Sequence to fold (172 residues):
Amino acid sequence: MSTFEEKMATSSRKKSVTMSKNIIIRPDPDTSAKVQSAIRLLSETMQINANEPSLAFYRIQEHIRKTYPAIVQKQRELENLQVQIDGLVFDIEYSMEAVKTILNSECHFSNIQTQLQKAILLQKQIHLLNQQQIQQKLFGKRDEKLLHKNQTVVNASLSLSFEQKQTEQSLS
Fold:
């Protein structure tokens, strides 16, 4: 017997005892059996209703309603992380290809190095030639000044000698 059935039976006994004080009535065994049967059926109905599948579905629905937004948010976060991971994987693959290409282009780098060495050598030669030209120009100007002085001296001496000859000729 369940606790509910016991409570109902106890309350019916109290009522019969109260009635018996006023009126002396003895409980009828047939009525008592019917009451017991009704209480048992009521108890079974309560248990069935408490464990009914629709109630279970309601509880499941409540649980889903509470947890679904969090699950959807986590799913979106996972999708965003997947997109980021895909991007990073692409970057890594591209970087690996670039490194492989650089390793395969060692001959090109050695060619560039030799060309740079040649360019540096040519630049040094050009610089030396420019310095020589500057020195020649400086020496050339100095020589021109010396030549010009020498020519003026020569011209002056020639003019003096010419004047002397003229004066000698005029005197003679």
